[in-house]
Amino acid sequence: xxxxxxxxxxxxxxxxxxxxxxxxxxxxxxxxxxxxxxxxxxxxxxxxxxxxxxxxxxxxxxxxxxxxxxxxxxxxxxxxxxxxxxxxxxxxxxxxxxxxxxxxxxxxxxxxxxxxxxxxxxxxxxxxxxxxxxxxxxxxxxxxxxxxxxxxxxxxxxxxxxxxxxxxxxxxxxxxxxxxxxxxxxxxxxxxxxxxxxxxxxxxxxxxxxxxxxxxxxxxxxxxxxxxxxxxxxxxxxxxxxxxxxxxxxxxxxxxxxxxxxxxxxxxxxxxx
Length: 273
Prior knowledge:
Layout: E1 8-10, E2 18-24, H1 28-32, E3 35-39, E4 56-60, E5 66-70, E6 78-84, H2 90-96, E7 114-120, H3 121-132, E8 140-144, E9 146-148, H4 150-164, H5 171-179, E10 181-183, E11 191-197, E12 208-212, H6 215-218, E13 221-224, H7 226-231, H8 234-244, E14 250-253
Parallel strand pairs: 1-8, 9-10, 13-14
Antiparallel strand pairs: 2-7, 3-12, 4-5, 6-11, 7-13, 8-11
């Protein structure tokens, strides 16, 4: 942990580690205007990411009848955004960025097209703590996801519930622990999670929280989808759009799909004399 009063960083993540996120264009204007939108973790697709909310244990009551206790009944509202320690992969671009092949690549962004953001864990979690205001830093966390085989993950939860019952995965750091568990088929993401645990239940009914940030102080670089360079010309209007909307830092295009010409001379320099 970074300190006793937050914000917190753990799970083997150094605060100065560069982290990356492929961010959909349709949410980019809010970000550039100084609003970091962090959705509720209820919206995460993988059912194992909210496993604790669906978990229950059974005990015998005084009347010798089986009583079911659902852990999800008293869970705190939680909000999270996913980042990665891995700079780039073909899979991540294809999963999180959709370049419309029917559109001219020199046209403006499409809604589902992604851009890769780069920052550091320190800048991001401190921006969250600052944006949430005084007295809320202890509810802010950033850390690496712990990947487990499915059976191992189940056993981890079962053992914790068996030992602590309805107190399992409770409190701020207990919620963090639960939200940083993921199955091993997702290891390619090298995921880092930015989390806000709403211990005051202030945002209980909301689908996301809106955190004010200085985007140019937090985001060091934006990288455009590599398929734009492969198609030719698509990057220029996007760079202009980003700059016109207030981004002042480095803008690049990924070279992942850039064509190369490999020159292989089969003679020695002295043969030219």
